[in-house]
Structure formats: C-alpha cells, structure tokens
Automatic annotation (TrEMBL):
Pfam families for this protein: GDPD (PF03009)
Classification via InterPro entries: GP_PDE_dom, PLC-like_Pdiesterase_TIM-brl
Superkingdom, taxonomy of origin: Bacteria
Organism: Anaerocolumna aminovalerica
UniProt record, GO biological process: lipid metabolic process
Gene Ontology molecular function: phosphoric diester hydrolase activity
Protein name per Swiss-Prot or TrEMBL: Glycerophosphoryl diester phosphodiesterase
PROSITE patterns per the UniProt record, alphabetical: GP_PDE
Domain GP-PDE: 1-238
C-alpha cells in the first residue's frame, strides 16, 4: 500500500509548503499530495483553499493576488510561527525540486467553485517542461476537470475524488470515463464499494487516514494507497505487518 503524504507532512508542518514536502520525503513517503490553484497573474500556486484566510497571516482570495503579492504571506496553519517563515510555493518551485526525488506526486486540481479553464493546460505544460509525466497523477472533485486532463494527456492516471456521500456504481463510473483510481473519504467506504472497484480494475486511494484502526481497514481491504497527514507513522505501521 502506497503512503501518500496529504498536503505534504501536514500533521507536523504547515500544509502545502516546501518544508512540509521535504519532511514528507524524509519520513519515507511514496507520494506527495498537493493542491493547485491560479493567482491573479496566472501563476500556478500550491494552496488548498480559494481564500488565504485559514492558512496564512493574510486575508482575501488567491485569485485576487499576484504571485509576488502572495509570497509575502506566511503559511502558518496550524502551527503559528513555530516553523518560521514559509511562503506559498509556486508549482514550478515544487516541480523543479521534486523532479529528481524518488517520490511520485498526486496533483489535486482545485477547480471547484471558480472553474479556471486554463488550469489543466498550465499544469500539464509544467509537467512536460520538467519531464515528470511518469511521476505524477491527477485527482479532483471536479470530474470534468479530470476528463479534460484525460483528453489532453491520456497516459497520466486520474483519481476521482468523492466526499463521504460518495457516488453510486463507483467502479463502473470510474472505468466508464477511462479513469484509473477512486479516491473516497474512508467514512464513505465499505465492503461493497471495495468489491465493485476491484471488479472494474479501479485502484483505491483513501483519505484521510491517521490512525491504526483506519490503516488496518485499508490494509485488509487491499487498498492501493493511504492518504495521510502522518506519512512516517504509516510507513512504520506497514513495515510491522
Ligand atoms: O486527496 C484527498 C484529499 O486531499 C481531499 O480533500 O480537502 O484535503 O483536498 P482535501
Ligand atoms: Ca487535496
């Protein structure tokens, strides 16, 4: 089972920052999950929310700031200034760092309330520019956005993100769109869904699992990946099995 570091090592470091990604690699993760959005001047940045209020010392929406303006804010959530100053990374900064690392990346396209129609193209251009197409996958709650990625670059795997309520006919749904993976909330997963995914050859990467009970469930189900805030803990637990 692959250990996927959710927003990096966000259980101990400010989420979606370079320190969080570097610490996730040090903790031995197999893959890093991160969230991508666009600034006012169309720079790809790594941040979860459309607003900067929760995670930084600033306020307002990502799309209303230029990249240069955004860089002045400190990503503090949820650790205050314990880890010093950590700016919002650009996606390019991340890619140029990760290209030589022995980890893959799960790029979540945050094309939610505001649909950035150029986001998929920009992310793909960056992937191709750095030659990391064999080391990435896409995921999104916006399945149209995934579909756009599949059209543009079919060989990159896509994971269908769903909330607790899930969707019906999961395995069929995912395979019908030629996607490869289903990414449910653990709270919405059960034996029937696992069987349905297996029957349709759909891989299961499950979020957000931070304790032994959850890990054991996923392990017993034969899931392909665990998306976690604590990659080191998950690696250790898996080693002990
Ligand atoms: O990839 C799983 C997870 O990242 C989805 O939820 O809100 O953390 O982006 P969220
Ligand atoms: Ca995410």
């Amino acid at each position: 089972m692959k250990v996927i570091a959710h927003r990096g090592f966000c259980g101990e470091y400010p989420e979606n920052t370079m320190i969080s990604f570097k610490k996730a690699v040090e903790a031995g993760c197999d893959e890093i999950e991160l969230d991508v959005q666009l600034t006012k001047d169309n720079v790809l940045v790594i941040i979860h929310d459309e607003s900067i209020d929760r995670v930084t010392d600033g306020s307002g929406n990502v799309r209303d700031y230029t990249f240069e303006e955004l860089r002045k804010f400190n990503v503090m959530a949820t650790f205050g200034d314990k880890h010093g100053f950590n700016p919002i990374p650009s996606f390019e900064e991340y890619v140029s760092w990760v290209k030589d690392k022995n980890v893959t990346t799960n790029i979540e396209l945050k094309t939610g309330h505001f649909y950035y129609k150029e986001l998929e193209e920009k992310v793909i251009d960056m992937i191709l520019a750095y030659g990391i197409e064999d080391k990435v996958m896409f995921s999104s709650f916006n399945h149209l956005s995934l579909s756009r990625c599949k059209e543009l670059i079919p060989k990159i795997e896509c994971g269908v993100l769903v909330s607790k309520s899930g969707i019906g006919n999961q395995g069929y749904y995912v395979s019908k769109f030629n996607f490869e993976c289903y990414h449910p909330d653990i709270e919405g997963l059960n034996d029937d869904i696992v069987e349905d995914c297996k029957a349709h050859n759909v891989k299961l990467n499950v979020w957000t699992v931070n304790d032994e009970a959850g890990l054991k469930k996923l392990y017993d189900w034969g899931c392909n990946g665990v998306i976690t805030d604590y990659p080191g803990f998950c690696k250790e637990w898996l080693k002990s099995q």
